[in-house]
Design a protein that fits this description.
It is built from six helices and six strands, in the order αααααββββββα. It has a six-stranded antiparallel beta sheet with strand order 4-3-2-1-5-6. 30% of the residues lie in helices and 19% in strands. It has 202 residues and is α+β, with helices and mostly antiparallel strands. It has a domain of 115 residues: Ribonuclease P/MRP, subunit p29 (SH3 type barrels, Roll), CATH 2.30.30.210. It is found in: Nucleus, Nucleolus. GO terms for molecular function: ribonuclease P RNA binding. Component of ribonuclease P, a ribonucleoprotein complex that generates mature tRNA molecules by cleaving their 5'-ends.
Length: 202
């Protein structure tokens, strides 16, 4: 590449400006070059945004077909889930700051309403269906409308929340869960605001 002299450079710059601004006269271009700096505009190319593909999970029908949430019969044993219950008790103690004797009951109650109940031992104390009364066991799964409970007799019971009252005991503190007011998934309960007072019925 041969270096250009000053005259060649002037001619080159003048030709570029003339081509870039054809509406301007030569005198005006010359005046711009001699009196002030000239900033050439640069138009960057627009970057096309790549659309991210959304990862779709399984539908409810696919989950049922794949039996993702079903507990195998050989796993339906009360003793297997006792360690889960011990973990749950420690989780509740940490959540309620130790469950001290001077703790306010309404504070503990409000925390239990939003707590994860997987591993809790519950008993059906009241029900519009008498056959449910007295069922006691560890909650293995919580869905929007039902609890799946494993009893000491190694029987998996599906107990609806609607029209049932459940009792839950930990470190001498007994709490009652009114299933009719509890028709939520576990993940939804953590964000819901519960009313501590109001009419309570089955």
């Amino acid at each position: 590449v041969q270096p250009q002299g000053s005259e060649e450079a002037k001619v080159f710059v003048h030709a570029v400006l003339k081509r870039s601004m054809p509406q301007m006269k030569d005198e005006a271009i010359q005046d711009m070059l001699t009196r002030k700096a000239l900033v050439l505009e640069h138009y960057p190319r627009k970057k096309t945004k790549q659309k991210r593909k959304k990862v779709k999970g399984f539908t409810a029908k696919q989950r049922r077909e794949l039996r993702l949430f079903e507990i195998e019969p050989e796993q339906q044993r009360y003793a297997i889930f006792l360690p889960l219950h011990e973990l749950w008790k420690q989780y509740i103690r940490d959540l309620c700051h130790g469950l001290k004797p001077d703790a306010q009951p309404h504070m503990i109650q409000s925390k239990l309403l939003k707590a994860d109940l997987h591993g809790a031992i519950v008993t059906v104390t009241k029900s519009k269906c008498p056959s449910y009364v007295g069922i006691t066991g560890i909650i293995l799964q919580e869905f929007k409308h039902v609890f799946k409970i494993i009893t000491k007799e190694d029987k998996l019971k599906v107990v609806p929340k609607l029209n049932n009252v459940f009792s839950l005991e930990i470190d001498g503190f007994i709490s009652y869960i009114y299933g009719s007011k509890f028709l939520l998934r576990a993940s939804e309960r953590s964000a819901k605001k519960f009313k501590l007072k109001g009419t309570i019925d089955l």
